[in-house]
Write a structure and sequence with these properties.
Layout lengths: L6 H22 L8 H14 L3 E2 L4 E4 L20 E7 L1 E3 L2 E2 L2 E7 L4 H26 L6 H14 L10 E2 L10 E2 L12 E4 L2 E4 L3 E4 L2 E6 L2 E4 L11
Antiparallel strand pairs: 1-4, 2-3, 3-6, 4-5, 7-8, 9-12, 10-11, 12-13
Helix pairs in contact: 1-2, 3-4
């Protein structure tokens, strides 16, 4: 039953997501040449603290090739013009409930290859979203494996490596809570569930892109609780 959130729980998760969106907007303005991954991660933590929120996990900030690491630990690497990829994974914790969101932006102009990677991840996420939305609208059951497969197969068809993690996870009092959207998931997605959808492409020695949002499965509607821009951003 903990997988199905009450109205009060949903309100709290929405508030955490709102603060997460504000933190992302804030950190974009701080990403300048010379800042380190550690400094950027600290700025995110400090922003949450100033807004009376905690963190649902330690923020991930990865520059350049480091964006190819799924769970990169921020280092003293300084942002430089040739780094390109900047992956930011952050989550707020407010009134005991979590948010989770990842965006990948670019420092400078993107190459054709970087644009293709980014658009492939955006489309993969949208394919999973469309399948879930279509299923609930037409009263068809859908499980975590099917939602995962919609994004995973598309990424492979575009010539990129298989996603090295599940497509998503439940979220609530814990940032990873209850169930997964993955190749082995038999969990039926039901009204009141809150979960992430986070496809990614990771190319060792080059960089990577992950786009993650927190979603609520409502009555006949899949709602993204994280609202930050999904368009390609060049700083």
């Amino acid at each position: 039953m903990a997988r199905i959130k009450t109205d009060q729980e949903i309100k709290k998760i929405k508030k955490a997501c709102e603060i997460g969106d504000l933190a992302f907007e804030y950190i974009l303005g701080k990403l300048m040449e010379g800042i380190t991954e550690k400094e950027a991660a600290k700025l995110i933590r400090d922003f949450f603290k100033r807004n009376n929120a905690g963190i649902s996990f330690r923020p991930i900030v990865a520059f350049g090739k480091s964006a190819s690491e799924v769970h990169h630990k921020p280092t003293n690497l300084k942002l430089k013009k040739n780094h390109g990829f900047i992956m930011i994974d952050l989550g707020a914790k407010l009134e005991g409930y979590c948010s989770d969101m990842t965006r990948t932006v670019f420092f400078g102009k993107t190459s054709t290859k970087q644009k293709k990677i980014y658009q492939t991840v955006v489309t993969a996420q949208q394919k999973s979203m469309n399948l879930i939305q279509s299923s609930i609208k037409n009263n068809r059951t859908i499980n975590g494996r099917q939602a995962d497969e919609a994004a995973r197969i598309y990424i492979i068809e575009q010539g990129f490596p298989n996603i090295p993690h599940t497509l998503g996870h439940g979220i609530g009092r814990k940032v990873h809570e209850g169930f997964r959207l993955g190749p082995k998931s038999k969990t039926i997605l039901r009204t009141g569930m809150v979960f992430t959808i986070e496809p990614g492409i990771y190319l060792r020695g080059f960089g990577g892109v992950r786009i993650e949002d927190t979603f609520l499965l409502g009555d006949n509607k899949l709602e993204s609780l994280t609202k930050s821009n999904r368009s390609l951003i060049e700083l």
